[in-house]
Structure prediction request, 425 residues.
Amino acid sequence: MASDRDLPIVFREVRVVDVRNGRVGDPAQVVVRDGIIESVDAGGEVPSGARVIAGEGRTLIPGLIDAHWHSLFAAAPLTLAMTGDVGFLHILAATTARDTVLRGFTTVRDAGGPSFGLKQAIDSGLVPGPRIFPSGAMISQTGGHGDFRSRHEIPRGRAGQLSHAELVGAVRIADGVDAVFEAAREQLMLGASQLKLMAGGGVASAYDPLDVTQYTEAELHAAVDAAENWGTYVMVHAYTPRAVQQAIRAGVRCIEHGQLLDDDTVELMAENDVWWSLQPFLDDEDAIAVPPHSQAKFEQMVVGTETAYELARKHDVRVAWGTDTLFEPALAAKQGKQLAKLTRWFSPAEVLAMATVTNAELLALSGARNPYPGVLGVVEEGALADLILVNGNPLDDIQLLAAPETAFALIMKQGDVVSDAGGFL
Prediction:
């Protein structure tokens, strides 16, 4: 990814999308210098030496943010992810990162996996990709949603002290308050910007029914205490009222999924200012492939998707969006399509806001552990220059986000042009 920060770049005659207020402005000029948006105004002189991009009335939107992405596992089949050569896995992840940023996703919150090395490679310019807010290994109890060990590996120590998934940093199995403290502190030591715990049953996991509650309140509280001591927060995987209510009592700040929640629980989330990171899981052409033992769990989960979004709107909970694509290369490529599906419950303006300024507000919960200080998710003076020049107006046609190869004329990440399909520079 070549740096373009030595000279200012000027977008001329572009219509800036105000994602905060859901409207498109009149043609304007946007000046980018040193990776920052220097100005957004109706015109003015072009800075000396600047490279000019003729927008010709195209819209300019902020770079997109996926708040629940798995950088190493989105495009790695399950068997490869849990047993494959770790070197190959990381090379595959680098190609996935490149494809991710070429879809316009300039930032992701990694919801579990060994993404620290990939993040370093992207940040240093070795490979193209989105900036990564890493959670490190997913912390799970024995038999929980993150326990992908085979039965022959039980009890621990029979086939080695740690499973392959633990050795490569995909998961961290921890039982008891002290073990959870240790696991949480390990991930913070490695550079986690937030922590991810499994607080309830899951679809993809083999051992846990969807309705089970995982960890005790004391165990969850241990992770929250460890995170708060480092100035950051905990998010948890959970679907049911009992699991989510326990997590709220423990001080968790963000619930991932939650398709089986009820009125009382969602009201409690709103009262405690807890975020809800929801995914539009549906039984459609893009449904995740599940093994036979998970089919019933999958059907139970997708039935709750409609109700979940309705409850979120009813109680005015702060809703984030993420894909949570796991182990499916074809589905990973449909990141923008998954975002566009939100128009089933939200207006195009609300959808675009969710994947930009709203998700940016969620990322800011990492406080002092934020690896990328700066304003994300908006096209405003002083913000990081994550910009997408769109052939069309996504507020009129949200499906543009699902076709980045034709709809995105230029993609910029913090002042660096990562895609110039329009041939401007």
